[in-house]
Amino acid sequence: MPVLKQGSSGPDVTALQQKLKDLGFDPNGVDGNFGPGAKAAVIAFQQSTGLQADGIAGPATLAALGLGDGQANADTTSPASADTASADAVSADAVSADAVSADAVSADTASTDTASPADTDAAGALNLGGLTGKLPTAVIAQIPDTAKEFGITTNLRLAHFLAQCALESVGFTATVENLNYSAQRIPQVFGKYFKGIDPTSYAHNPPKLANRVYANRMGNGDEASGDGFKFRGRGYIQLTGKNNYTSFSNFVGEDCVANPDLVATKYPLASAAFYFNSNNIWAICDRGADDATVTRVTKAVNGGTQGLPERIQNFKKFIQALS
Fold first, then answer.
1. Residue 41 main-chain phi, psi, to 5 deg
2. Do 2 and 12 form a contact (C-beta atoms < 8 A)?
3. Average pLDDT, rounded, for the chain
4. What pLDDT, on the 0 to 100 scale, is given for residue 255?
5. Which of helix, strand or coil describes residue 96?
6. Distance between CA atoms of 272 and 172, rounded to whole angstroms?
7. What confidence tens digit (pLDDT) does each residue in 209-233 have?
8. In Å, how far are 48, 62, 65, 111 from 72, measured between CA atoms?
9. Which of 48, 88, 159, 314 has the fewest CB neighbours in a 10 Å radius?
């Protein structure tokens, strides 16, 4: 598929618009004409996945959407289809979209610039320089402030934290929960919310699905309130539900209830650290660098052991880089 931008037209644009609409990013119509609405939707999608937010659907953006033959990385499974990823990731109090190997990093985010000395100093004893080439520089840049704010005081804690974030966020490429499920897949993931309910109308309709499965819990209103989709999972370990957005807002001093997208665009790492902090997961991290500890951390984050082999692999990669 060619690069698509404002002024482009044709069936490729139609496919792009439909995919954006399916994912909850309204392109203001599916008419085959790339106008301001489509550009705004592309920017919103790019921001949600950590891509360069320029409104141009280039190879990395198209790959993240699962469109065309553009591939950001040969190992990448697009977060755009929740039916094709390899392992189910469970967010805090929510079942998230399927997650894949955390080695998959989008070409738009996998810059290998070195973390600055100032950042390294600010993070104290953390060996951020060792993460060069292992993480997108945008993620490395968030670590000093996040570490200071949320008690990431050792390389061991940081390795555990990054290992979990990498898996849950598809290699730091996804910062908004993917709820683009097929009718067949919905009962498998959200079975208790679809007993006796035909899932057909919820298929590939993220707003409708989120509003059902997250209704009347975590501080959300009923299905008609729209709170489920408004407060769907965001951040590297998906912050979910109005109560959690409220608590996080109070902590960071910025209103993420009024503007939930801040969690995805400004606080993806901080919101994940907030979850670790709130649930005292650091104490588990401190137990050691063995597989058993990674398993305990995984259970605290995931609610189970989904994707455990990848999480262990991620941890070993990061603890080696930080040592």
1. -65, -40
2. yes
3. 82
4. 96
5. strand
6. 12
7. 999 999 999 999 999 999 999 999 9
8. 16, 9, 11, 12
9. 88
Which domains occur in the chain, in start order? 11-65 (1.10.101.10), 80-179+232-323 (1.10.530)
Residues sharing a CB contact under 8 Å with residue 203, sequence separation 6 or more, in sequence order: 181, 182, 183, 186
Non-local (6+) Cβ contacts of 246 within 8 A are: 219, 257
The residues, any chain, with a CB within 8 Å of residue 116's CB and separated by 6 or more, are none
Burial of 112 (0-12, 13-18, 19+ CB in 10 A): exposed
Is residue 97 a contact partner of residue 80, using CB atoms and an 8 Å limit?
no
What's the half-sphere exposure (Cβ side, CA atoms, 13 Å) at 7?
Answer: 2
The answer, yes or no, to whether residue 108 has pLDDT greater than 90, is no
The span from the CA of 71 to the CA of 62, in Å, is: 8
What is the Cα 113 distance to its own chain's centre?
A: 22
The alpha-helical segments, DSSP class H, found in the chain are 11-22, 36-49, 59-65, 117-122, 137-150, 155-168, 185-190, 206-213, 227-230, 242-252, 261-265, 268-278, 281-285, 291-302, 308-322
Bridge-partner residues for 88, per DSSP?
A: 98
Other C-beta atoms lying within 10 Å of the C-beta of residue 208? 17
Is the separation of the CB atoms in 234 and 268 below 8 Å? yes
